[in-house]
Structure formats: C-alpha cells, structure tokens
Amino acid sequence: RVHRARGEWDSVLGLLNQAERLPGGGPAVLLEQLAAQVHEGVYAAAVEVATNAVSRAPGRREQVGLTAAVARFYSGDAAGALESAGRIVAADPRDADAGWVRSLMALDVGESALSAPASREFALPAVALDAWRDLVKVHDAKKKESKEDARKLVRLFLTAYVYEQAGWHDTAALQIEDVLKAAPGCLVAHCLLPVLWEKAGERARAIAACERGIAACKGVSYGQLVLGDLLLLERKVAEARAAYAECSAGEGEPFNAR
Q: If you placed Cys at 228, which of 108, 174, 209, 243 could pair as Cys (CB 3.0 to 4.6 Å)?
C-alpha cells in the first residue's frame, strides 16, 4: 500500500511477484498482481497470468476472468473481451459484477447500452437498473462533447472494478473521484464512492463523500440510507436516525433516472 500511495509501481509489481512464489502466496496475491499489471499497461502479461490461474485460485474464477477481460479490452481486443465477459454472464445471469463489466465494455464500443446485461431485470434489481440508465445518459452526453472523454469515463469505472477486486479500495475510490471530476452528478459514482472509502478504512472520507452525493443528487434518497449506516457505525445514533427518516420520506425508488 505504501508503494502504491507513492506511485512506485515497479516496486509494487516486484513485491507481488516475490509474494507469488511464497507458500500459499499465489491465491492471495493473484488479483493484486493482475491489478498492478493492468495499471502498468502490461495487458498481455495479465491475460497470460489469468489464463494460467485456474489451478492457483479456483474459487476466484469469475473475478480473475473479469479482470482478464478488462485487460484484454484495454489491449485492443474488444471482441475477445466482450466474449469472455459474456460467457461469465451466461453462466450466471444474476452475477451483477459480470453484468456491470460487460455492460461498460458494450457502452464503450457503441452496443445498444439499454439491452446490455446491466439493464436486464434478471441481472440487477430495479434501483440499480435506474442507476445504469442514468450512467448511459451521462456517457451519451459526454460522447457528444468528446468521444475520448466518454471513453475515459467508462475506463475509470472498469479500472476501479479491477482495483476493488484486488482489495485496493483506496485506489479504486480515487478512480471514482476522477469520475466525479468529469461528471459531478453521476449517480453511480456518488453511490460507489462512500462504500469504497469505508472499505478502505477511511470513514471520515466516506461520510464526506456521502454528504457530497446527497447535495449533488437532490431527491435521491439512497444517499441518506448509506449516510445513516455510516453514522450508526460512528455511534451517532440521533444523526443516523435523522438520516434514515430522510430516506423513508423520500419519494420513489432510491435511484430514479427516468
């Protein structure tokens, strides 16, 4: 984590490669190794590691497969990446992560986004589907201004997914912070960010991110629910109760982008 914070990625990769050779080190460091390779742009190496990883981490097949699909996508093999992620979706249509990753790729290449896995009722609950539809609108608006900016938006989300699977919640959160710099009202980003900061052990930043999201997304009651949970963890019971009351008073679903 110290090397990541300092941007010393050669050291990160070197340490992970050493850890891989330690007894029992393979499964523990595999997703971190893949994330570091994606960060450094050595996509072919990431795909190769993932392809040979089944025996090392059989319980993480889907996570490894999706991370490899992102690496393949970044390498320029969009068709292969979509096919790989699509196989995971087909194996379990309710796998929200697989639907999310494949849908982001589809959005980037111009497939019909609202027919992608993330917008199918059997893949995600209705509230998440509304959030996806909002992201499509944000992406399409960006694309009218700049195709490169729209692509950057999608890839920030994809990279955040890779980092989160590696347990790098702080690094993933910084990716989402960058999303919000480009699209300040993005519902998905505002809802991901507090969770990532909390997982990173940064509760003050999680609460601040949640409050920022509530201010930016007027009428979205979900933020109050998350804020209530965070305040309760801080043992601020009265403030948590007030946040829950605000959430209950909100009209409609937590996400309503229609």
A: 243
